[in-house]
């Protein structure tokens, strides 16, 4: 089985619609794909309606968190999307995204960049607006060559010249909320130092003691030595070790299935979840298509 547990669609900051994403996942030879848009479950219905036969969908989300001033992301799988407490927290995070992005646009304008809110809003479309959309505007304007080049201290990285903070959930609270909604939690790309500061491994141990289920080990932002170290850390802490592409369509260079999760780990995730169940594909012929 080929299992990719971290992807994004146009419901947040990917470039594939949810329907396109699952079709592309099937064409890429995946058996299981997780839809983990930022702080939203809006893409579920479209993805399920278009799910090709032979592909199973894991519903999830990537939650924006912050610990001791350091931004981090928590993957949540198979939770009940209508559970009130987790839903309210996700809405709080999403509602802060627009004023935050508008603030980044204002800072960029002060730096002499001819970006506009209309441009960023066009790029975001119906998705949850975020830094990748602002970064894409910088690429369109020729300010930077790639989206990743915008995530530096010169521009949009944490603490960068055009950075703006947003509401982010305490990760211990995120674990509690996801568990309360019947879901499973995995710390996304915990050692992605290219993105900025990362939380220390001592904090990972504290999160594990609080109920964290796993850490994302195999990821494009982790070098081989880092992956080996994280795999050892997961073993020491009794955490599941996952792998995934963090696919964003054409917005990033990663491809579907670039890294994958062991079937036994996937089975354990589904065993622990009580809020939702994986959805098997039926050929994409459902009426919501």
Overview of the molecule:
With 289 residues, this protein is an alpha/beta fold. Helix content is 36%, strand content 15%. It has helices at 18-27, 44-50, 84-95, 97-110, 117-124, 131-140, 171-180, 201-209, 224-237, 263-272; strands spanning 3-7, 32-35, 56-67, 70-77, 184-187, 214-218, 240-243, 279-280. Strands 1, 2, 3, 4, 5, 6, 7 and 8 form an 8-stranded mixed sheet that branches. Helix 2 (44-50) links the parallel strand 2 and strand 3 (56-67). The model has no long low-confidence stretch (mean pLDDT 94).
Write a compact overview of the structure shown:
With 289 residues, the chain is of the alpha/beta class.
Topology readout:
Elements: E1 3-7, H1 18-27, E2 32-35, H2 44-50, E3 56-67, E4 70-77, H3 84-95, H4 97-110, H5 117-124, H6 131-140, H7 171-180, E5 184-187, H8 201-209, E6 214-218, H9 224-237, E7 240-243, H10 263-272, E8 279-280
Parallel strand pairs: 1-2, 2-3, 5-6, 6-7
Antiparallel strand pairs: 3-4, 3-8, 4-5
